[in-house]
Each structure stands twice: as structure tokens, then as C-alpha cells.
Amino acid sequence: MAVAKQKATLDQKAAELFAENINMMVPYYLMASYAYYKQDDPIFSDDFFDAMAKTMLERWDDIEHMHKVYISKNDLQAGTFLGGYPTRVEGALRSLRSGRSKRT
Asked: How far apart are CA 40 and CA 34, in angstroms?
């Protein structure tokens, strides 16, 4: 139950961040993918991740981020990510997790 609550909290905080800056979806998509596929420890609920991928696909031309090149429209359509990760993703995810555990 506590894990589900943590994910819901992070889902909400990320949604607020994305409403302010759509470009932040790129690093969060990469971190969420890394957490799910590489660590088997998701940071977002499945529904939130799927909605994020759909929004990114719809707003693809509006999104500007240096790591956007790592993500393809095919990834977003499939709702998955099996590509390569920028080297900073693992550290950013570690930082996100440590910050989350301090606040929850």
C-alpha cells in the first residue's frame, strides 16, 4: 500500500511539473523507463506512464529537450522504451528516489 501511495504522489508531482513545462516529460520518461525496465522498480503508475507517452506523442513537435533524441515516436506509440539511456539518467533517478523517500 505504501508503494502505491508513493507512486500516486510522484504521479501528481510530475503532472504538476509537466503542466508548467512540457519539456520535462523527456527526462522523466527516460527515468521512468530506466526504473521499470532496468531496475524492475517503477516510479510511476502504469496508467500515468501510458498517459505521459500519449501526451508526448501528441505534443512531440512542441517538446524541446537535449535528450529527446533518445526517444522515438515508435517508443511512445508502443508505450515502451528499449533504447539507450543518457549517462545522467541513473544518477537523476537515484536523486529523485532519495528526495522522494525524504518527503514521504
From this structure: 8
Interatomic CA distance for residues 82 and 51, integer angstroms:
18
Residue 24 and residue 7: Cα distance in Å, rounded? 18
**Cα 91 to Cα 75: distance, rounded to the nearest angstrom:** 23
Mean pLDDT across the chain: 91
pTM: 0.89
Output the nine-digit C-alpha cell for 24.
Answer: 520535462
Q: How confident is the model at residue 8 (pLDDT cuts 50, 70, 90)?
A: confident
Cα separation, 41 vs 28, whole angstroms: 14
Q: Are 36 and 49 in contact (CB under 8 A)?
A: yes
How far apart (Å, rounded) are the C-alpha atoms in residues 82 and 92? Answer: 18
The DSSP symbol for 20 reads H
Cell 517508443, residue located:
75
Distance CA 22, CA 5 (A): 24
